[in-house]
Amino acid sequence: MNPKDEQALQDIVTKLEAAWNAADSVAWARFFAEDADFIHILGVHFTGRVAVERGHRMIWDSIYKGSTVKYQVEKIRPAGPDVAAVFVLGEMRFFDNGVERHITARPTMTVQRMGDEWQIVVFQNTLVAEAMTAEDKESLVIKHPFKAADSAAGGR
Questions:
Q1: How many Cα atoms are found within 13 Å in the side-chain-facing hemisphere of 11?
Q2: Which of 61, 114, 134, 151 has its CA 20 to 30 A from that of 35?
Q3: Which of 154, 120, 122, 155 minimizes the C-alpha distance to 28?
Q4: What percent of the chain has pLDDT over 90?
Q5: CA distances from 2 to 9, 25, 28, 69 (A)
């Protein structure tokens, strides 16, 4: 993969971080293909950019309101001239009834060149459970809005 393409993929991750920290679901979703597949941290599967945008708007209005993330690209693995896997380490800080909580995750993105730009076609967010306290895990699992509302945002 040439340096220009690697930089473009790094830039997507940087812009995703900025969109998360601004709680801007429209900016977040613009990096996803129209028919993207997204599996969130608890395993719910969303299909399509619209569902990705709605789901993120919902979490930024609820459990992750005021949250911040820090993303670090760990590896970019080309799978052809127009496809690559991007491995990221993510650290998130959020608040639960005033108590600061932390999540570590490993988002993995499959990106594809579409015309002149790269788009995320698959996003799999994997929780790094051993990096969390028992209280943080409990708060995440119990209070995450997509256990009961999966269908509301297009999840299954």
A1: 9
A2: 61
A3: 120
A4: 71
A5: 11, 30, 25, 28
In contact, 123 and 109? CB cutoff 8 Å = yes
Residues 6+ apart with CB under 8 A from 19: 25, 27, 28
Tell me, what's the pLDDT at 152?
A: 42
Kindly report the pTM of this predicted structure.
0.85
Q: CA of 14: how far to CAs of 51, 88, 132, in Å? A: 22, 11, 24
DSSP state of 63: T
Q: Which two tokens stand for residue 10?
A: 């790094």
pLDDT band at 128, cuts 50/70/90? confident
* Ordered domains of the chain (ranges, CATH): 3-148 (3.10.450.50)
